[in-house]
Structure formats: structure tokens, C-alpha cells
Amino acid sequence: MLHSNASRREFLALAASAATMLRAAEPDSRLAAVLARTISVDMHSHVGIPFGVPNAPLPKFDLPGEMKRTGFSAVIQTWEVDSVPAAAPGVDYTHFHEALDFEDRLLAATHVKRAFTLRDLETAHTQGQPVIVQAAEGAQFLEGHIERVDEAYQRGLRVLQPVHERDDQVKPMADIYTRAAHLGGLTEFGAAVVKASNRLGLVVDLTHMSYDAVKAALKISTQPMIFSHTSLVRGPGEKPGDARMAPRLLPKEEVRDIAAPGGVIGVWWHGTDTVQEYVEAIKRVADVAGVDHVGIGTDTDLEPGVGRLYTNAVWKGETRAMFPAVAEEMLRSGFTPEDVTKIGGGNFCRLFGKVTSAR
Ligand SMILES: [Zn+2]
Question: Helices marked H in the chain — which ranges?
Fold first, then answer.
């Protein structure tokens, strides 16, 4: 009896996996329409800046080609001035200019534009032209000068992430989730940066802030904000994350807090070995935040040769382009076409339209 039950279970499991394989072989008939109408956005994509090398030669890779290969309509392109040490005040500010000059040259050479408004994102999508939204991961270049937020905006930034791995040397803005808290959450200057961003129409990215800092920023911001690259902390019985990742994942309460005023949480690929696992991660966040408050924020790099961080090769053996693969697996796992459009970029677009029209 026991034996035959076990055989029956094995048979059913085999039949189920055969059915899954069969389904996997046929494309979802709803996919093409979803892809056509979705302004898909990667909320966190890196570009390597050769800091300290004025007029550095541009990388040889095909930026618009790599963007098209991802299947995303737009990427939020970012760099970190704290990826290199700054020996003295002024150095981060110099690196900020180097990064923007480098990006200006890269975009001009590859005929990729920056989007400043929702209309720009819509136009780029309609024309099939990949477009970037300029971001900075870490605002250490402010060095206590609030007017540099205006300068960043004038230079084309539309997303500003106040903190990253190290503090602003002159006036730190907030505690960082991977370091011991020593600022009491958000500082006065950090609050001023949030307010200046609200006033200008610059999206604030809360990533890398401690939960206390996030709470304080939520209290004073007049606009919804993003947490562009993260995932939900894992519960008992789920696949364990490594210790390095643990402080970077959000508890349910924090996800709810960010979502409540209209915020969007971008889910990254870290910790996932397949697109199916990635869609499970999206689902975990969506179950807590609601489908109107989730996005995709890969935390990858479009330049081939950066190892596993290369956007177009994060999952071994996955041959589909990233966004179409994610969209197809989302449909297969029970998300509606409307959900895919929202999470794929619609939610970010809603927030971007609201924040950038604040002026
Ligand atoms: Zn980051």
C-alpha cells in the first residue's frame, strides 16, 4: 500500500513536470501584446566610469544594441562616486563631473538620449529607441552643498540615491544599512536633500539607507520614492540568502511603508539562479507591496565582460532576452497581463510622471 502510494505520487509528479515542460515549449499567446504595450524599465543599471582619467576612452561595446537585447524600453543608468576612495573634500565632486562628462560623451557617441519626463519615456518606447534615465548611486558629491542638487538636475539627473557604501565626507545624509548606525537615521542635510529633490522633480531612491532613515525620509517627502534594487527578506523554510546580502533585503513592514505613499520597490536578480526563481522573488514582494508598487531593478551592467553582472547573461542557459523572459514567466506563473505591464515598468512610469511634473 505504502509502495503503491509512493509510485502513484511519483507518477503524478512526473506527469506534472511533463505538463510544465510542454507549457514551457509553447509561447504564451498574450506575450506579444504585453511586450508591445509595456514601457519596460530596468530601475537600476550600472555603467563603469574610469574615475581619475579625464577624457577616458569610451568603452567599445554597443550600448543601444545591448539595451535592445535586454528587451527593456528604458534603463535607469547609474554610477557610484564612492567606488573609488576620496582622499579629501572636493574629490567626490570632481568625480561627479567626470562621471557626467563621460556619460555625455558615451550617450552622444551611441545616439542614446536621456529621458527627463514621462513623455520622453513614452516617445522612446513608441519609436523603439532605447533611452536612459540618469541616476547617481550615492550623493557624496554634494559635500554639504545643497545647491549641487540643482546642478545635478540641470546636468540631467532624474533619480538621486543619497547614500551608498560610504558617508559624504562633509555632511553625511543618512545611516547606511551595511554599516553601524551613527547618525540617528536621516540627518538634517539628508532631509534637505529629499526636500530639494521633491521641489526639483528628482526621484529619490532610498536604497542603501537604514530602515530608520527610510522612515524619516518617508515622513518628510511630499513625493513617492523608490527603493530601486532589493528583494524581500527570506522567511523560515525559504532558500537562505548569504550573510552579505541579508542587510540589503527588506522586511515586510518596510516594503509596506515605501509602497503606502505610492512608492515602487525594484526587485533585483541577486539570489536567483533562473528566471523562474526571479519571478518568485517578484511575487514575494508583490504579495506584500501590492502589484502597483513593484518594479524590476536588476543591479546589473550592460557592458559585456563584467562577469555575472552582465545584464544579458545573468541566468545560465537562459537564451531569451531578459524582459521578455521575465514577462513570459510572470504570465505563466499567474500574473495577469496588466500586472506584467505594471511591474515591468508601468509603476515606475506612474511615479516618474508624478515626480518629474512637480515643478
Ligand atoms: Zn546598490
Answer: 2-25, 31-37, 63-70, 91-110, 118-127, 147-154, 188-200, 211-220, 252-259, 275-289, 322-332, 337-341, 347-356
Q: How far does residue 160's CA lie from ligand 1's centre (Å)?
A: 12
Centre of ligand 1 from the C-alpha of residue 229, in Å:
7
Digit-coded pLDDT (tens) for 15-61 = 556 555 555 556 789 999 999 999 999 999 999 999 999 789 999 99
Cα 80 to ligand 1 centroid, rounded to whole Å: 9
344 Cα distance to chain centroid: 11
Distance 12 CA to ligand 1 centre (A): 43
Using DSSP's 3-state secondary structure scheme, residue 76 falls into strand
CA 283 / ligand 1 centre spacing (Å): 21
Element (H, E) at 335: none
Q: Tell me, which fold does domain 38-356 have in CATH?
A: TIM Barrel (3.20.20)
Cα separation, 45 vs 54, in Å, equals 23
Rounded distance from Cα 296 to ligand 1 centre (Å): 14
Predicted confidence at residue 3, as pLDDT, reads 46
DSSP symbols for 150-213: HHHHHTTEEEEE--SSS--SSS--B-BTTS---S-SB-HHHHHHHHHHHHHT-EEB-TTB-HHH
Whether 68 shows a pLDDT value over 50: the answer reads yes
| Contact present, 295 and 41 (Cβ < 8 Å) | yes
- Torsion 129-264-344-292 (CA) sign: negative
